[in-house]
Amino acid sequence: MKKVMLSIIILIGFLFNAYSQAGDSTISMMRKKVYQNGQTISNAKLKSILKSNPASTQQFKKYQTNSAIGTTLLVAGTASVLVGAVINLQGNIQESNDIIEGDVKDSYPNGLGFLATGLVLDIIAIPLILSGSKQFKKALFNYNSSFGKTSAIPVQFNLMVNANGLGVRMQF
C-alpha cells in the first residue's frame, strides 16, 4: 500500500512539474528573482513586459512607489537611530569622564530625539515595504492570469532521502 501511495504522489508531482514547465511567457518568482522562460529578467525588462497588461502595469507602479518610499524611510530611520545612538554614547562617555574628574555639568548631549525619530520612521517604512511586495505579486498574478496561469510562484515536488526513508518535499 505504501508503494502505491508513493507512486501516486510521485505521479501527481510529475504532473504539477509538467504543468509548471509549459513553454509560455508567464513570469514566475523564485528566491526573490524574477524569471520568464527560465531566464532571469531585470526590473527594466519586467516593466516593459508588464506594459502589455494595463492592470499589471498599474500594480507595478504602486509597487515601485511603495518600495521607493518605504526603502527611503527605512534607510533614513536606521541612519537616525545610529546617529542618536552615537550622540547618546558620546554624552554618556563625557558624563562619565566629568564624574571621574569631579566636574559635573547640568546637562549632557543625548540622542533620544534622533532615536525616537528613527524608530518612528522605521515603523512607518515596514507596512509600505510589505504593501509594495503585495502589489508586486498582484502585478505578476494579473499578467499571468491573462495566460490562464494564476500562480507567480511555481510549485515543485522533490524526492528526498533521509534517515527516516524516502519522502516527497513540496516547495513553493
Protein architecture, described:
The chain has 172 residues and is of the alpha+beta class. It has a domain at 43-148. Helix content is 63%, strand content 14%. The protein contains four helices and five strands. It has a three-stranded antiparallel β-sheet. The protein has a two-stranded antiparallel ribbon with strand order 4-5. Strand 4 and strand 5 (165-171) form a beta hairpin. The mean pLDDT is 82.
Question: If strands are numbered along the chain, what order do they take across the biggest sheet?
Answer: 1-2-3
Number of helices: 4
Rounded to the nearest angstrom, the distance between the terminal CA atoms is 28 Å
State the helical fraction. Answer: 55-70%
What global shape is seen?
elongated
**Largest sheet properties:** 3 strands, antiparallel
Which stretches are poorly predicted, pLDDT < 50 over at least 5 residues?
A: none
Strand content: 5-15%
Rg value: 26 Å
Helix and strand composition category: alpha+beta
| Overall strand count | 5
Mean pLDDT: 82
Order of helices and strands: HEEEHHHEE
Strand and helix map with partners:
Blueprint: H1 2-20, E1 27-30, E2 33-36, E3 39-40, H2 43-50, H3 54-101, H4 112-145, E4 156-162, E5 165-171
Antiparallel strand pairs: 1-2, 2-3, 4-5
Short description:
The protein contains four helices and five strands; from the N terminus they run αβββαααββ. It is α+β, with helices and mostly antiparallel strands.
